[in-house]
Amino acid sequence: MRKLIALCALGMALLGFAGVGHAQDPASAPAVVEAASAVVEAVAEAASAEAAAPAPVPDKGDTAFMTMATVLVILMTLPGLALFYGGLVRSKNMLSVLMQVLVIFALISVLWVVYGYSVAFTAGTPYFGSLSKVLLAGVTPESLGATFSKGVYIPELTFVAFQGTFAAITTALIIGAFAERIKFSAVLLFSVLWFTFSYLPMAHMVWYWDGPDAITSAETLETVTAAAGALWQKGALDFAGGTVVHINAAVAGLVGAYVVGKRIGYGKEAMAPHSLTLTMVGASLLWVGWFGFNAGSNLEANGISALAFINTVVATAAATLSWIAGEALLKGKASMLGGASGAVAGLVAITPACGFVGVGGALILGLISGLICLWGVSGLKKLLGADDSLDVFGVHGVGGIVGALLTGVFASPDLGGTGICDYVANTCGGYPGIGAQVLIQAEGVLYTIVLSGVVSFIAFKLVDLIIGLRVSEEEEREGLDISSHGETAYNK
Predict the structure, then answer these.
(1) CA 472 from centroid of its chain's CA atoms
(2) Mean pLDDT value across residues 231-249
(3) Phi, psi of 420 (to 5 degrees)
(4) Strands 153-155 and 144-146
(5) Domains and CATH numbers, the chain
(6) Closest CA to 411 of 369, 446, 360
(7) What's the chief localization of this chain (predicted)?
(8) Contact indicator for 416, 361 with CB cutoff of 8 Å
(9) How far apart are alpha carbons 57 and 63 in whole angstroms?
């Protein structure tokens, strides 16, 4: 369009010159008119070329990659998270956990397309989007979603589906903190409230922006930044959900453990996991599915998605080893539960960092997170005094915080990280400095803790007021499988 306007202006100038030349020198008029005709033809050709320019088309490879990444995140939840949690509870509560994970996934998937996507991923305020895409209004098979590379797109419907799986698994993560004693109806009502007022604002604050193609100069960068989410504006780095997913869910779970109260017999009766076999299967499915979670968050298949993939392998393996090594030193034996928990701790910690840090950084991050999360489910848990049934805060909260903060360290190019991309100069590798970035990361962590903590407390209190949170003592002793769902996981 700019070329067309320039050619038109040139043509008008030449025509004007022709008029002057004709008045001063009649012999020069034919040459000037010929030049003007050439300009007019050039203008017509430019207009025709612009009209014929094809619309951007999503790359089929990227689209296929993101479709498979979405499937893998679904696998993480169903059956991965369900089996991981299910194996950790007592047999009388196995089905209740499976049911809660299944139905939360279904519930949030519906709410996501009704209003969730619109609130999280449209322009609005720095904290909330708008309702312009309620029920996916205006989103068609031809709609395009931006990636992190200029001129590269995926179908917007693919992005909608991918991000919807994040919302669903995040909400389902929370239930592990108060498993075995909460009403099924209370879980669902709380999920609606928390998803609406905690998950959606966090997703918008951390991940919403207009995309790289809108940035062509310092002025447009300023415009795009001003329209982005609050934490994106500040430069907080969260590749796949350390704040949005793990810290957000873990804080909600910890608040729930306090408000719902401890299980009957907690600290006095044996409450050992009923099937570490299923827990191992669930942890393995989580690890496999997490490749979609982390690598898919790059939104395209390139070197950065490969970096996120290998970092997910390395950090998880390192955390598994450091956890069981610490456990062996403390208790004399390495346990299967410890190995599975260490793997999840590594997955959690690498999530915000996976596309920003080098492989060496991922290795160190995994080793650190395994040991700190081991302390999180032992020493810290005793200090907090909450009955966090399945150690949601000890693994997801502690691991998420460690990962978010260390992202600010190991994303530095001086330590093998990728740095930050400059979309004005179209280069990557700049960095504000480790200290400055860690402060930004800490601010993102604080935002998440405060928002999720306040929203969760209010939501739990509202649910308790409306329908009650906890089953009766008789129902809890009988087990939620029978008392809440009328069936059992294992028939004798």
Answers:
(1) 36
(2) 97
(3) -120, 145
(4) antiparallel
(5) 60-485 (1.10.3430.10)
(6) 360
(7) membrane
(8) yes
(9) 11
The distance in angstroms from the start CA to the end CA of the chain is 75
Whole-model pTM: value is 0.89
Whether residue 212 is preceded by a cis peptide bond, meaning omega within 30 degrees of 0, is no
Neighbouring-strand partners of residue 420: 430
DSSP H helices in 332-432: 336-350, 359-376, 379-384, 392, 398-410
Q: Which residues contact 101 (CB under 8 A, 6 or more apart)?
A: 77, 78, 81, 82, 85, 172, 175
The whole-number average pLDDT for the span 317-326 is 98
CA dihedral 314, 148, 293, 133 (to 10 degrees): 170
The answer to whether 313 touches 359, Cβ cutoff 8 Å, is no
Considering only residues 54 and 226, tell me which one the structure prediction assigns the higher pLDDT: 226
Burial of 27 (0-12, 13-18, 19+ CB in 10 A): exposed
**Residue 57 reports pLDDT greater than 90:** no
153 phi, psi to nearest 5 deg: -135, 160
Amino acid at 405: L
Collapsing DSSP to helix, strand or coil, 416 comes out as coil
Q: Name the one residue in this structure whose structure tokens are 């609606």.
A: 192
What 218-224 contacts at long range (C-beta under 8 Å, 24+ apart), as own/partner pairs, is 218/424, 221/423, 221/424
Number of H helices, E strands in the chain: 22, 4
377: left (phi over 0), alpha (psi -120 to 50) or beta: alpha
For the packed helices 94-111 and 184-194, what is the interaxial angle rounded to 10 degrees? 30
Instruction: Name the E strands within 425-471.
Output: 427-430
CB 307 within 8 A of CB 314: no
C-alpha R_g of the chain: 28
Size of the chain, expressed as the number of residues it contains: 492
Q: What is the pLDDT of residue 55?
A: 76
Q: Residue 34: its pLDDT value, please?
A: 55
Dig out the tokens for 268 from the structure: 């006095």
Confidence of residue 118 (pLDDT cuts 50, 70, 90): very high
Q: Establish how many alpha carbons lie within 13 A of residue 83's alpha carbon, considering only the half-sphere containing its beta carbon.
A: 18
